[in-house]
Amino acid sequence: MEKELLELLNTVLSNAGLDTISEMNKEQSLRDDLGLDSINLADLTVRIDDKFGIDVFEEDFIETVGQLLSILEKAGDNA
Amino acid sequence: MHKLFFYDVDEQIDLSYEDVLKKINASQVYMHNLTNCSVDVYFCNLLKGIILNESVRILDQDFSESEAKHLVGDEQLNVEKEFKVEFSSVEDMINAISNSTATLEIFTSGTTGKPKKIRHRVSHFVNAARITDSHKKDVWGYAFNPTHMAGLQVFFQALLNQNPMINLFKYSKSNVTGLVNDYLITHISASPSFYRSLLPANFICNSVKRITLGGEKSSKELIDNLNKTFPNARINNIYASTEVGAALISKGDRFQIPESKSEFIKIEDGELKFHKSIVGEFDFEGDWFSSGDLVEVLSENPIEFKFVSRKGILINVGGYNVDPNEVNACLINIEGVLDAKVYGRKNKMIGNLLMADVLKDHKVELTEKDILAHLRDKLQSHKVPRIIKFVDKIELSRTGKK
Question: Do A39 and B368 touch (CB under 8 A)?
Fold first, then answer.
């Protein structure tokens, strides 16, 4: 799941003209560290929804890569 | 030899005007709220309703039962009514149709929400048809949904001149080019999306004399391509809608309100409006129907204008209003993009995320990244679709629009 999320993140970063990353750090802030704005984050949520069938922003406001991963893993465990 | 009425290669429908006469004379039943039948049965039933001076409700034949029931309310579907006529000739039958007092109840495509019911008198279609000796030899490429306004307009134009209709609606490029050349089609009226589905234009159809585009914005590139593909055709762009019918013809993208129509068509606050005397029957407030089409006036006396956008089609992306037509125009200008459709996908964070479906020319190397780079160069950031999907076909609405 981590590898797939990294791929999606890099697609969004690259399409937005931002630097891609080689690995994810759970403490990284999606906005402050990776530079994603609201539209980029919406783009990411749609790609995650298409890939995993999970609406990551359904309940919580997500700030970090770690929070994103934990929701995905939780949803994966419940699947 | 009997004159061909309607031909559909896949459905194996090959019906002459004499066949239609025989079917009408032999029939004992007209079906009210007809659904789920082939196009030849639909056309014959339509004619029967018109001959009976009925209020004919026209439903898409591919509606599911629940979709159709939703539109007819408390009424039943496929209600049989007694029918008995005996026409001595095709001319006799067409004469009865020309003098009918029937009304046709049509539903708009519902791009603005729930489908809206609009009633037009059959006389509206009869009066709009051009019936002359020179039109007797026309052969129509039938490229609209037969249950919709534009499809009905072509139907009456062909019927009243006893012209053949060759079905092109929903056919692919190779079928269309084959049918146009085999049947020496002279007239095609279709949406820009239909013509765009024929690109890249790597064939020539010499038989076509008249091409009409309507229902959506077209582009200079498309017109240029049509000129190459149909070198003997005069190309007309018309303004038409389910509410009004075909109302105005343009030169390029410049429409003029002719003197004869200036009492019935006006522009107010940048929006095109039509007087109630020239539109179908449906609920709207006051004497003027607001079309929702936003225009820019280019000159006065006579008024000339061009279309800018449609009210209500703007997509809210993070508080910015995006006109999908503007983005679409940019997309189809990219080399290798044959057609595109821009739309919003609901998103909790920003209202809508802008998406685009793209039909690309397989001979041209083109990635999502290439397209985004091109768009970023031409458009503000919020107007750039975030997700580009490459598709084999651009899905159209019921009317054949994007």
Answer: no
Residue numbers in A near B389 (CB within 8 A): none
The overall average pLDDT reported for chain B is 89
Residue B386 and residue A38: Cβ atoms within 8 Å?
no
Note whether residue B242 is domain-resident: no
pLDDT per residue over B220-265, tens digit each?
A: 778 888 999 999 999 988 888 888 888 888 877 789 998 888 999 9
For residue B266, is it within any domain?
A: yes
- Rounded to whole angstroms, how far apart are CA atoms A16 and A11? 8
Mean pLDDT of A8-27: 91
pLDDT (tens digit per residue) in B337-385 = 999 999 999 887 788 899 999 999 988 899 998 999 899 888 887 889 9
Is residue B280 situated within a structural domain?
yes
Chain A contact set for B382 (CB, 8 A): 39
pLDDT digits (tens, 9 = 90+) for B38-71: 999 999 999 999 999 999 999 988 777 877 888 8
Domain that holds residue B136: 4-237
The predicted pLDDT at position B113 comes to 46
Domain enclosing residue A33, as ranges: 2-78
Residue B281 to residue B283: CA distance in whole angstroms: 7
DSSP 8-class letter at A64: B
The set of residues, in sequence order, having a beta carbon less than 8 Å from that of B187 and lying 6+ positions away, is B138, B139, B140, B141, B163, B208, B209, B210, B212
Domain count of the fold of chain B: 3
In whole angstroms, give the CA distance from residue B203 to residue B144: 22
In terms of domains, do B289 and B321 share one?
A: no
Question: Using an 8 Å Cβ cutoff, are A71 and A39 in contact?
Answer: no
Record: contact B318-A15, CB cut-off 8 A: no
Residue B231: asked if its preceding bond is cis (omega within 30°), the reply is no
Q: Which amino acid is at B250?
A: S
Q: Predicted ipTM?
A: 0.81
Q: Per DSSP, what are the bridge partners of residue B359?
A: B339
B195, B227 contact by CB (below 8 A): no
Q: List the CATH number of the domain containing B218.
A: 3.40.50.12780
Whether B347 sits inside 8 A of A42 (CB atoms) is yes
Q: B244 in a domain, yes or no?
A: no
pLDDT at B112: 45
Cβ pair B319, B375 in contact under 8 A: no
Of B276, B292, B310, the residue that ends a domain is B310
Specify the number of domains making up chain A: 1
Q: Which of B219, B224, B239 is nearest to B329 (CA)?
A: B219
